[in-house]
Each structure stands twice: as C-alpha cells, then as structure tokens.
Amino acid sequence: MRKDVNRIGTLSRRGFVAASGAAAVLPRTVFAQKKVPIAYTLGWLPEGANIWSYAAKPFWAKAGLDVTIEKGTGSAAATQAITQGKYQFGIPATPNSIQQAVKGASLLSLGCFNYDTTMGVAVRPESPIKEPKDLKGKKLGSTLTSGEYPFLPTFLKKFGLTMNDIQSVALDSKVREVALIEKQCDGITCFVASALPKLVSSGVNPRVFLYSKYGMPFYAHSLTTTPDYFAKEKGVCEAMAMGLAEGVKFALLNPQETIEMLFKELPELKLASTAKEQLEIGMGVWAANYMSKEAMEKGVGYSDPAIYATMTDLIFETSGAAGDRKPDPNTLFTNEFVGKLKLSDAEWAKVKAGTAKYALG
Q1: Is-contact 142 332, C-beta < 8 A?
Q2: Which of 103, 139, 167, 172 lies 20 to 30 Å (CA to CA) from residue 306?
Q3: CA within 13 Å, CB half, 235
C-alpha cells in the first residue's frame, strides 16, 4: 500500500481520535470560520446501492466538510472527472479506476464501501439453466458497452465454454431487463444489483450467477481521489473516509431512515410510485453483500490486498492494449483511514436478518 505522506492537509491530526469497537471515529475538530467545500460525484444516479453517501453527509458536516453530492453518468466518466480535478472525490466502481490506471491515470482508493459489483448472469427463476455450464447453446443478451460484458469470455472459460458456445445478442441498456422479463432471451449479463429492482417489480425474481462466486472478485464503489490531492490534503481525505464509514454503518443499521434522508435531499425521487420499493431492494442487495470477510473482520471500508491483485490481473488481461502497463496493485489503494469503525456481532446479526432475502448467488 502507499507510504504515508508526511504533509498533513487542512484538518489537524490532533483533531482525530483513535476509536475502539463501534465508537465513533470521526474527527472532533471543525473549521472555525467556514466549512471546506467538497465536490463529490456518484458513479451513477442516486439509488439503493449508493444511498449511504447521503447518510454520510451529517458526519462530514460534523468534521467541517460541506460536501455537494452530484449524480454520475457512469463510473468511467466519474474517474475521468476526478483525474481532471472537477471533483475532489467520487465513488466510482473500482474496476473502472483500475482500467484508468492501466491507461496511465493516477487514482487512489481510500476505502471500499460496496464489496461486490454484482457483475454476472441473470436467468429466470423457472429456467432450466441451473448452473453456468448450462448456458451452452442458450441465447444470452448483453449491452456491449456495459462493464460486465468484457469479462464474459473469462467467465465462460471457467466452465469449458467459449463465446461460440452461446448465442450472444446485443441489447440496448434500456431494453436489456425487458428482454428477460418478456422471455426474449434465456438470460442476460448485467450488474445484478442495478437490474434487480426492475426485474423484481415486474414479477421476475431471477436466479443469478455472480462472477465473484467463481474466482472473479470485483469490488464495487470505492472512495476515490488522486494521489496528488491525497498528498496535499491528507486530513480532508481522512475526514471523508471516516465520515463515509459512519454513513455506511448508519445505512446498514437504519435502512428506512436512510431512504427518508435521500427523499429529503432529493424529493423528486419520491414522485415515482415504485421508488421506495426499488430503493429497498437496492439497499438490501448492497447490505447483504457488505457482510464480507473484509468488513466483518477488519472493519468498515477495509480492502483486501489479494483481491486488488486479482482484480488488477483480470482487468489487465481483459482490457490491456499495446502501450498499456499493469500497475502495482498496492499503489491503487490505502487502508490507512479505514478499518477503525466496526459493527458488533449483534449489529451484524441484525443486518443479516434484515437482508437475508436479498442475498445473491
């Protein structure tokens, strides 16, 4: 992982306190005159899988940060905007940050706040496709520009299949889930957490095969900045990571209150009749996936170096081109500010009980 940077940014290190157990780890110090303005971009639209960003806002405010959250248009766009300095921080999908690093961009993850992209294959619940090898000869719909599609050949290879063994159908992202709902395809590739609300609200509770369950782990949302900003404003980076960890814990334990916080922030979302149901599903899938070994054993936001190494290998092998370089995985992330906040066994039990029906794979 990255070496410590001696220079400390705007927030004083003395303003931070060590914490144990589930105690708050946020900095006590706030700015005397005015809060530090921070521009923060989501990787996508506000939804159940990133709603904890809004739960973090009160904790950031206590630390002296005035964070403006803006919706995203995809993780690739978010990572590029961060490298260009349009945002100090963002929460893109980790694979996109690694892809940018392969192309020479400099990005740094300060913590993982969604442990599974849920990239994979979804089929109807009554489908004869009981396991991935059963995809042979079947019609599989994909959006060719979607993040999971480039990894489909690697996934199939694990079961002795190639792309020639399936009927691959190109679909626009707006009709991908519809194709499965209306039985136009035997299955679809997708980010399951994003596709699930639409499928379930249409009466389709799919059987899914996540890449992560078959030796292809991909972390999802990571708090991301640039190494340059990290070096200049280390204290701000610490406050952002700690505040987001507190937001994640709050969202895990208080899902309904978190949804109301989002509606208060963005009241127009409440106008859709299915908004609350879709948020609940998205949050449920996220929370079920957050019950990972990393978070439960090491603490909220902790990243496993071995997973980063595997992700880097997979991404470089899949998307690397002439002139690209495989980055050192240890330069892509730091655990310096995360792992300090933990949930008790009883709190994890509460999360498990509340999300059991959303567990995937």
Answers
A1: no
A2: 103
A3: 20
Distance between alpha carbon 143 and the CA centroid of its chain, in Å? 20
The pLDDT profile of the chain, 361 residues, written as one tens digit per residue, is 444 333 323 333 333 333 333 344 555 454 445 789 999 999 988 999 999 999 999 999 999 999 999 999 888 899 999 999 999 999 999 999 999 999 999 999 999 999 999 999 999 999 999 999 999 999 999 998 888 999 999 999 999 999 999 999 999 988 999 999 999 999 999 999 889 988 988 999 999 999 999 999 999 999 999 999 999 999 999 999 999 999 999 999 999 999 999 999 999 999 888 899 989 999 999 999 999 999 999 999 999 999 999 999 999 998 888 889 999 999 999 999 999 999 999 999 999 999 999 988 6
Domains defined for the chain, CATH in brackets: 13-116+219-358 (3.40.190.10), 119-214 (3.40.190.10)
E strands in 203-359: 207-210, 222-225
Token pair belonging to 80 = 């590029």
> Which residues have CB under 8 Å from 57's CB, separation 6+?
67, 69, 247, 261, 265
Phi, psi of 57 (to 5 degrees): -55, -45
Compute the C-alpha angle 44/74/189, nearest 5°.
95
Q: Which amino acid is at 347?
A: E
Q: What is the dihedral of CA 206, 253, 93, 226, to 10 degrees?
A: 180
Residue type, 251: A
Sequence-ordered list of residues with C-beta below 8 angstroms from that of 33, at least 6 positions apart, any chain: none
Query: How far does Cα 170 stand from its chain's mean position?
Result: 25
139-142: strand order across its sheet: 167-170, 139-142, 187-191, 119-123, 207-210
Structure tokens at 326: 């495989």
